[in-house]
Amino acid sequence: MSAAAPLPVAALGIARLRLAIVLVVLAAWEALSASGLLFRDVIPSLLKIGAALGKLLASADFYGNLGVTAGEISVALLIGGTAGLAVGIALGANRFLSQAFESLLLYLGPTPKIIFFPVMIMWFGVGPGSKVAMGVLSCFFPVAISAAAGMRQIDRVLIRVGRSFRATTWQMVTKIYLHAMREPIINGVRLGLGVAIVGTLLAETKLSNRGLGYLVIQAYALFDMPKMYALVIVLFVLSIGVNVAIGRLGRGVGTK
Amino acid sequence: MRLKDWARSRNGARAVGVTATVAFFVLVEALIRAGLVNQFIVPLPSQIIASIPRIIAEEHVLDRFLQTMQEVLWASVMIAVVGISIGVLFFKFRGLRLACESWVGAMAAAPIVLLYPLFLVIFGRSATTIVMIGFVAGLAPVILKTIEGLAGTRAVLLNVGRSFKVTPSQQFWKILLPAALPSVFVGLRLGLIFAMINIVGVEFLINFGGLGQLINELAERYDLPGTYGAIGFVILTSMLFFDVTARIERWLRPVE
Fold first, then answer.
1. How high is the pLDDT of residue A186?
2. DSSP E strands: which ranges in chain A?
3. Which pLDDT value is given to residue A177?
4. Which of B41, B114, B227 is closest, CB to CB, to A216?
């Protein structure tokens, strides 16, 4: 096997190749839908999915539920992000604290947060509070870990300059730390937002009567497959879109 | 070593971390016993510890642990085989890589676990659904890291191979793959962590399988100490999994 062999489709161009792949996938989907190999409507035709998507985007109910989910995620990101940032800065600034407590963050970070949902229901009830709490719990860890790592990467000269001017802790945080660690913070927020979306939506699918997660599980319960596919498409586009937007924002901020 | 010096050392910091964690649980116990925290929401830590032998014996925790691990194992095998194969394919055909790599990156950021109602429809409420979610969730990092590892092979190694007139197959098995192995394993480790998080999460959500189902069942029975104990068991399992994979990754990393 040769390293990076010249591709046989170079002339076709990447855009054309992408288009070809998309067309092949869509044709395969349509063929599978028409084949009858799977139960009826498990793989609905693209026309049905398109119609369901149009209907979904035209309904006021969808936007109401989108607003609920977006509100829960925003509050979760605000609380979890702020708490994560504060803990990350404290751990990154103090070697002793880092050695004492950072392993807890690193170990708890990769645990599946949805298992805490029964506890969150007991603490915050079955309403939006428990969903926000799930989002907070999910996004706290990536933001804190990223902020702690970012703190350790700050140029020591900047810190010494701040200290030589006898800056207070608050001034050090707002004038030096936050400016010097923009990129790690934005990366942490990006990761945190991704997991906050997942945590909140999963909680909505488990126990809720509002939000996009609730709509998905309702579509499943009613076996309205075209609507479920439409919702999944919308969720994926929104999640990936927000992720890309924050990434671009980070690059924009970083270049200023 | 004086006590003050020891307290500032790495071991001293760790001891402080452990002591602070234990002190936190002692404080929670005291607050509950004093009636300041409702014990019908937060059970006594001593009750949680006492519940562990009970849930191990009566709820067959070890069997459930093995069931979850079996699902993780199946997902891991599929992730390794399919992920590495796709990575190698993308490396070999550069056009395909340029066309699809950003899609794989987007897939890594996508909330795959939200597809679980869709997988339920296709595969039913079974272990297959859980394994497939774990597989899909863990695939993207393996593909990306395999490409990165193969593409990062040092030119001098490839030139040595060429000077020995190795066949393409020999070049792959004797040079490219060993050189890419550390990076591939980083991807595998990330993939396995994603798979495990999603597998336990989906077990909880669909109330089927091993440890995730146990938490759901205990919560539905309002067995608070048992629920907290089972959550602790999942956290311990995640920590163990995280630690073992990190050690294997360090072992595989080349000495710098």
1. 85
2. none
3. 86
4. B114
